[in-house]
Design brief:
This protein is an alpha+beta fold and about 160 residues long. The chain is built from 3 helices and 8 strands, in the order E-E-E-H-E-E-H-E-E-H-E. The chain has a 6-stranded antiparallel beta sheet with strand order 3-4-5-2-1-6, with helices on both faces. Strand 1 and strand 2 form a beta hairpin. The longest helix has 10 residues. The mean pLDDT is about 85.
Length: about 160
């Protein structure tokens, strides 16, 4: 069985028409091992509800930002089909509890890479943003992000060499 870390939703920000940044804070989130590009599995369903068993209790989200002081940010895309993750993001409020797994994943930067190539859709922007912010200004970067339209575009604020 997967052990969950527990926290509380402390901030919600609409960063694009169909994307929300959700900050989760709590003592369980202090001093985790995290590298830009890693993801977490967030419990979005009610484990007591058979309907949640059918639709899935967890969704995977790349971590937009992390602080060892005990908070992490997720960017959740509101899909038109309104799956369990999008429904959770629509109804969650500041003060709500959240349960998630420790950061994991292999989609991380390679320090010895001659260049970095980022290609994905709008769901990849959280991982890409975290990794781009971690690169030195001398890094050679190429990329493309496919979006469904203006509603899923948000503007990153970061240094560009």
């Amino acid at each position: 069985m997967i052990g969950f870390l527990h926290g509380t939703v402390s901030e919600i920000e609409q960063i694009a028409e169909r994307m929300r940044r959700i900050r989760i804070t709590g003592p369980d989130l202090c001093d985790l091992t995290w590298m830009p590009g890693m993801h977490t599995r967030l419990r979005v369903g009610d484990p007591r509800s058979p309907r949640s068993w059918l639709r899935g209790l967890r969704r995977t989200y790349s971590i937009w930002d992390y602080s060892p002081a005990g908070h992490l940010d997720l960017c959740v895309l509101d899909h038109p089909s309104a799956g369990p993750g999008a429904q959770w993001a629509r109804r969650v409020r500041v003060g709500d509890p959240a349960a998630l797994t420790s950061p994991e994943g292999r989609l991380v930067l390679r320090e010895d890479a001659r260049y970095h190539l980022f290609v994905g859709d709008e769901t990849a922007t959280a991982a890409f943003g975290a990794m781009l912010r971690a690169l030195p200004s001398s890094a050679i970067v190429h990329g493309a992000i496919s979006v469904g339209g203006p509603a899923t575009v948000f503007h990153w604020t970061m240094r560009i060499a």
